[in-house]
Amino acid sequence: MKKIVLSAGMIFLLATKAYAFETAAKNAILMDFDTGTYIYTKNHQEPMAPASMSKLMTVYILFAQLKSGLLSLDDEFTVSENAWRKGGAASGGSTMFLKIGESVKIDDLLRGIIVQSGNDACIVAAENISGSEEDFAKLMNETAQKIGLKNSVFANSTGLPDENQRMSAEDLAVLARAIIKEYPEYYHIFQEKEFVHNGIKQGNRNPLLYSMSGADGLKTGHTEEAGFCLTGSAVRGDRRLIEVVGGLSSNKERSEESEKLMSYGFREFKNYKIFSKGDVVDQLKVWYGVNKTVDMVVFEDVILTLQKNQVKDYHVKVVYNEPLHAPVKKGTVIGAAHLISPSGEVQTVKLIAAQDVARIGIFRKMIENLKYYLGGAK
Questions:
Q1: Domain membership of residue 311 as a residue range
Q2: What CATH number does the domain containing 368 carry?
Q3: Which of 110, 225, 226, 343 is the most exposed place for a label (fewest CB within 10 A)?
Q4: 70, 180: one domain
Q5: Which is the catalytic residue, given 55, 86, 219, 270?
Q6: Is 52 marked active-site?
């Protein structure tokens, strides 16, 4: 194992302060996928009208039921008159152009939701899974709670205007991250640029798919209240970023601002591996142990998303109580490393015992006690 020598004043020459970033978006967030770090935020916890970005929750539930085996891609759902009226062409919103009584495979329905943003496709999914869109909205809210969405409430499966339909930019980023992480086998659908159903070809509305190398998702939205909005993701090298922008004034502005924010994150930030799992930070003394010391090692890989090109002082402070008392079990938390940013933010890393240390027998313990009283602790 590699040994890391640390002191309270150790400095990592890692981070940098880039120019101040501004966006025309009313609400925005940029997240590093691997670390979960928020690179940029603006009103990111404010509940807002999410428009068709709400469909990401409908998709998440479909993916979950596919993965669990409750559904298969070849299963067929039937189109009700309600789904046709509320989500069809006559409604004026985005549609898959489904027909009343039509049986549609879930494989196609997913593309109708993701690529074509079909409101009718969402309602069909909702009714066939839960019996009604109202009951499906309850499932959406239950699911939101389970995956940690803090400022979201759902009234429908589509994102059609409803004063009770709200999501925050932060929640949308968290949801997008969950989709990518939990359902990689289905995620490729988000980067498909067109889909044909009932003889009608429609293109994916995500502007990043056409303008940015590595872009592969996720969902646009637009209503009068929400403005133009986007939840997007892109990969460059070994990094993935997720962004949400909302409240923009036009399709053009949405395209420009989303690309600008994503480019900023890739250009100005980088992931740095501070510790590898198993790195030895220090050795602690053990009283009454078969071994006199035990290695204190890092519990897991520690990767930080930091700005580049300018030195920042990231201090590491190791905290522990010494000596330990035997027996010591391998994997027991015996200390912590505090990574302290220049602004005083602290990230705590657990440090654990690398080995078992058994307790010495009674005779040897008597000898150790005698040594202590005669000569002090060594």
A1: 274-375
A2: 2.60.410.10
A3: 343
A4: yes
A5: 55
A6: yes
